[in-house]
Amino acid sequence: MYKQYREKMSSEESQDSVALLKLRFTDTPYVFVVFGASGDLAKKKIYPTLWWLYKDGLLPPTTKFVGYARSKITIADIKSKAWQYMKIEDEDKEKAEAFFKVNYYVAGSYDKEADFANLNKEISRICGDSHRLFYLALPPTVFAPVTTCIKNTCMTKGNFWTRVIVEKPFGRDLESSNKLSVHLAGLFSEQQIYRIDHYLGKEMVQNLMVLRFGNRIFGPTWNRDNIASIMISFKEPFGTQGRGGYFDNFGIIRDVMQNHLMQILSLVAMEKPPSTNAEDIRNEKVKVLKSVAPVALDDVVLGQYVGDPQGEGDAKEGYLDDPTVPKGSTTATYSLAALYVKNERWDGVPFLLRCGKALNERKAEVRVQFRDVAGDIFKPGECQRNELVLRVQPGEAVYMKMMTKKPGMGFSCEETELDLTYGNRYQNVKMPDAYERLILDVFQGFQINFVRSDELTEAWRIFTPLLNKIEKEKIKPIPYKYGSRGPKEADDLCLKSDFKYTGQYRWVRKN
């Protein structure tokens, strides 16, 4: 059965996603249930995403939407909250009204089967037998009771399928993650579970596969002999913005590094899979993660932002000035970690994962820094290292930093770039939001861009010892000023890890 499933998915996933979608969808009813429908994630992301897919005609025309939460609200309330995030043009207002006419709402608890039986009854009333998708836009504390109630009262029958979408965080350490995985495995098959990490839906993250395995020029150089180090960055120019109390329970490593950045690392470092089948790709990602040793504290820099007295607005306030943050908190808002993949391809190459809040810019990128030119014949220090940069956000781009002759009568070198800025090359192409792509994948049953349970286990194995040590010893993060590049000690670790930053060159994003 599993072999047939894999062969079927391999054949389907090789086709164009949208064309396949319209080909496959018939008059079969579908229902999309949003748990946590009254929450921030639902109003800011889930409902807007469902609207965009509905507007573009990418969902089955028979799809109905059901919100579920504890709050005693109505669809009109959900509409009023989500409307500002849905980016509705004047010409689409009539269609938006039609969208909300196929939306329903059920109020109930998250741990009483009687309430879920009522939800099941409402689903059956709305569309009878149907394919069912359950989106858990919920805090992890209620994952277990909600999924148990779904299994006991809301599953489909016959030839209809059920799929469950789980939002991060998937636990807070190896033990809690494994506990959640065991719980879910006792209720659903792995093919029914979609652990969503929205970074896997971003255009440039998905482009990693094509850049690496669809271009001959990168294959021979993608190894320890040619690459000095790799930096994977996530930077935000703002602080916790009054949500420090929530953030303080997790910290920057759990919030960003252990999931988003590790997923990117696995795509950068993995071997070529036998096919684009979801299981083949995820198998290679797991192999990479198994080759990474647990992070040592000596290879980590932790920081916490403080206010800038000369700054404006929020920049004047540090993390500890947020009234929702516990007094004296040692939670890091910045982290740089050097990881090593101990296999034949990457042995000795540092993978630097960097993430932080209240930094000097908004940026997410992968920066592959190549080794120095051997036998350099030019003036000392004139030739800088080549870099391949994949800009994830803002403004998707791929560019290669390289040396060229400076135009003019002289014979000196200067840095420039080969530039593929998506906004220029693909001016009339709509870049789908990450959630659009991923929710569409769930409808189609494509699991390439979702996290498998063994991937989770390996990622937590790498970070749990570090997190335990930080929390047990209450290690104080290094203060860094709001709006800066982060702690100076991070530059020292970069230098130690053979990543050279000169600050002389800056890529200018072209509009």
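Second entry:
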Amino acid sequence: RELHIVFDMFRLLRSVCGSLWPRSGISVRFYGAGSGATTKLFIDGDFVESTTSEWIDLHNPATNEVVTRVPCSTEDEMEAAASAARNAFKSWRDTSVLTRQQIMFKLQNLIRSNMGELARSITLEQGKTLPDAEGDVLRGLQVVEHACSVTSLQLGETLPSISKDMDTMSYRIPLGVCAGITPFNFPAMIPLWMFPLALVCGNTFVLKPSERDPGAAMILCEMAKEAGVPDGVLNVIHGAKEAVNFICDAPDIRAISFVGSNTAGEYIYDRGSRNGKRVQANMGAKNHGVVMPDANKEHTLNQLVGAAFGAAGQRCMALSTAVFVGESKDWMPDLIERAKKLKVNAGDQPGADLGPLITAEAKQRVHDLVQSGVDQGAKLELDGRNIVVSGFEKGNFVGPTVLSHVQPNMRCYTEEIFGPVLVALAVDTLDEVQQLSWWTSNGFVCIVWSFVVLVNAGCRLDQQQPIWQWDGYLHHQWCNR
């Protein structure tokens, strides 16, 4: 609810000081509502209707009504996108860094001026609440603002007299055509992690947004064009596995950035690397929150509820596992009461705390993982599987769900659930946590709530702990942490 208040204040400020946020003439001509609408490709500066015979129906997660049809790009269309990026690179790489910087300044202004439009597109296609969608855009906008500092980021290095009559100099030069493959859960933020920094450094880009919610990415393309990005510098293709394979195999593409599931990330890392590409693959996570008995109870439970159930649990930073140490396990009833008060509704409805899951299949997967926990002996403290939202009975809704008495060998613990589900474990001492929290291969973040600052808690520097290997495999990767 604090998040709702923050964005309400932002809207009020923008309405009072409208001159500070000049509106642009963005028109969403590549997209329309209704089952007959289609999402366009963006190739060489133009929004292009695909000639494909394969289409993916995109459903509003709150109603399951078809919003648009997303094309599976043909081989010729994907080749055209890569070719446009290759040809544009010849002149874009020589464009002055100040010119590229000015384009980023214009882009960040356009994004800030059209946050509402982007947020509405995200809510329509992805389902998250409007305040959450605006946060999605805001976090991406911050990366664009960082890209505006390119004049510092692109500095090289010099070292005179490294030896007699010898100086050294280093330069930062663009790679060429880069590509991004983005997930459904942050349709604006993650594309904005990728193409603005690639472009401002002199590279060209081929983006494949998630086929489940590409609308925000297409709006960003419109903004990039208006900001002055030359034709061919930014291109968008659509599709599923065939589009991924094209990006991994295309000789023109030099580097790939990916965010998504473990299965897809490992596949892209392997295939892309075998073809000599630089690949960064950001994959799954299973985050832990350790609750010490001396922690501030009110603050801890409020933060735990927000971290576990916000964005319907569909984020890699979701805190999906709580470990209660000692007497803190007695706080479970209070945690349940807070979770029950969260309002589940369509993302565009006032006061909604969490919206639907992205697809009916995602909903069923969450149901199955919760049931697997029950079957393996966990206690179902709060069951959100049978929730019905009035007016949105066909939506992919799952309410806040809590499983206690969970053991590390259970599927609900070892697998990333990606839904509004909190699994809870109880231990007697912090030493037990150190052994426990790394049993899952998806370990990413661990948070400790305690009144006392705990030195070396959970990850002593003299011991080896597994650490997430973002650009490769977790297996057998260890370092001093």
